[in-house]
Amino acid sequence: MKKLFVLLLTLALVLGSFAGCGGAAEDAEATEVKIGLNYELTGPVATYGQASVDGIQMAFDEINAAGGINGMQIKSVLLDNKSDSAEATSLATRLMTQDGVVACLGPATSGNFMATIPVATGNGIPVISASATADEGVTMDADGNVNDYVFRLCFNDSFQGVTMANFALNNLTAKSAVLIQDQSSDYAKGLAKNFVETFEAAGGTIVATEGYVKDDKDFNAILTSIAAKDFDVIFLPGYYQEAGLIIKQARELGITAPILGADGFDSEVLLQLAGADALNNVYFSNHYSNLDEDPMVQDFITKFKEKYGADPNAFHALGYDLGMYIADAIERAGSTDSDAIKDALASTENFVGVTGTFSMGADHNPIKSIVVIGLENGVQATSVKVDPK
Amino acid sequence: MDQFLQQMVNGISLGSIYALIALGYTMVYGIIKLINFAHGDVYMIGAYVGFAATTYAQLGFFAAMVISMVSCALLGIIIERIAYKPLRTSTRIAVLITAIGVSLLLEYVMMFFVGAEVKSYPQLLSQKVFNFGAVQINMQQIYIIATAVALMVLLQYIVHRTKTGKAMRAVSIDPDAAQLMGIKVDRTISITFAIGSAFAGAAGVLVGIYYNSINPLMGIMPGLKAFVAAVFGGIGSIPGAMIGGLSIGVLETLVSGYGNSMYRDAAVFAFLIIILILKPTGLLGKNTREKV
Questions:
Q1: CA A156 to CA A160: how far, in whole Å?
Q2: What is the ipTM score, two decimals?
Q3: Residues in B 218-247 with any Cβ partner in A closer than 8 A
Q4: How far, CA to CA in Å, does A309 sit from each of A54, A255, B280?
Q5: CB nearest to A210's CB, from B120, B213, B261
Q6: Could you give the domains of chain A?
Q7: What is the pLDDT of residues A67-85, one digit of tens each?
Q8: How many Cβ contacts (< 8 angstroms) between chains A and B?
């Protein structure tokens, strides 16, 4: 038994060293540049990961068809982290130490993305997420220092909360609001905190605060007590799974007030759960809207439909921008050295993407605008762009 | 006052669902002293059978409900035969662990086949709303309450007026003596599982129609609360399960409506603890002759 173990160990070491040689040999040729994709392809948040990857692949295909980056073709190494943060960490290690990637894209969600940050810092290879919106612990560490090798392409949750409060105050002339929040998610709590602070600072009042937890189905009790109160808008930070049911039950109880949410509403499932009749006077903040008349966005939508046969959502658009952004940085860096790429990512100015034009801030968060989408009969009918202050 | 009546309507609808699931817990416990933790997942399977019947076979409400009840009854019998019967002479903890295993098996096999994403039922009942003064009752709530009442009346009839019911009561009091009297104990236990599971299947379809959202893990929390309802009413007692289910539903609604919705589940379970301290056998627990 012991002999067998020694034999296997030897074999593993020998094979491991061969793998290392293979990586080095490929780097020397420099006809291609390897980029790691560490995404949620299965598991509970698989829809986010799959959509991001579709967008990234579309961007890479376009770049490769046009001759690549400085003559080098992009080769993506796609791995599935199963929506699990421990898996995300080990895949990041594998991509950086064995596959020899120059940068890693993803994961899509904040928790999984954060799990790859220590690996990126340790190996000195940049990691970028297009959709990790958490306020804390992403681009800055607990002491407020910027994580050198960590970037993101989306605004954070506090900006969404503040924007929706301003939208309620200015566009809907609301003076009072009811808050219904998902207590089991940090995302919802962050949004709620920033909404309440902004809304109350501008003289608005929060009439009632109600809570629910993930997987709840019956909201009649809280909605009946809300219906008896006097208020202008409902703010509902949370994900589409419960938000769809809350909107349906609220409309059935005769609550017609506007309902506001954030990018967690962006899913086809919201329409299936709530029904088209209930989805009137519903607004949510998002990264991107298909209604944007910018020719670049319309061009992206046309190309996306040709390739995948469906309308793109915000995750597709963010993925596409992410693919273009990393390619742009490698081109400006003029080399495949990870530190040069990191500096190019950090010094990005006025990058034009389908989710808006942005410059990378000193804290590695992009300075970009946000879109507030309005639904009529379940269809996206209006969109308002709000610029950062 | 109007708002209070409205909250009572909400609470009774929710409580009827808990009561239907609680009946299965209490019947199985009454007859083989087993807490069947897979029961909440039978309810989930019932919701999916109803979903398939209405979405793919385009059937109506009653047909879907009957198909779901029959499928769940068969599933209940199969679970009992395969997982619990071989362990009938083992320790109670062994059977309990097996029940938890069956529960996880059902959840994740279902997730493998249908995916983790939520599914929504088609519109089966009219959206009509009836107004009694300021109190609103919609069509789905009427169906839920009417179905629950009809099934409970049927169950009382089966248990107290039929030969099978007499056999069930006899087995629950003393299985060995019942066998000596010529009662087929295995068959009686199977029937008990079948009836309890059929009720869970009916609850699954009602929930699918009422809330319009089903997923493979939907059985966990209602299963737990129905278990609380059964214990609260006195586990083993059929009227206890009904009263327990309705009480938990109304209590939950009143806490959310008048107290603080943030503490809803905490209040429900705190209430359970208080009841068990004051009356350890539950509300109707002493009524041993009612055990089934």
A1: 7
A2: 0.78
A3: 218, 220-221
A4: 12, 37, 62
A5: B261
A6: 31-155+295-368 (3.40.50.2300), 157-286 (3.40.50.2300)
A7: 999 889 999 999 999 888 9
A8: 74
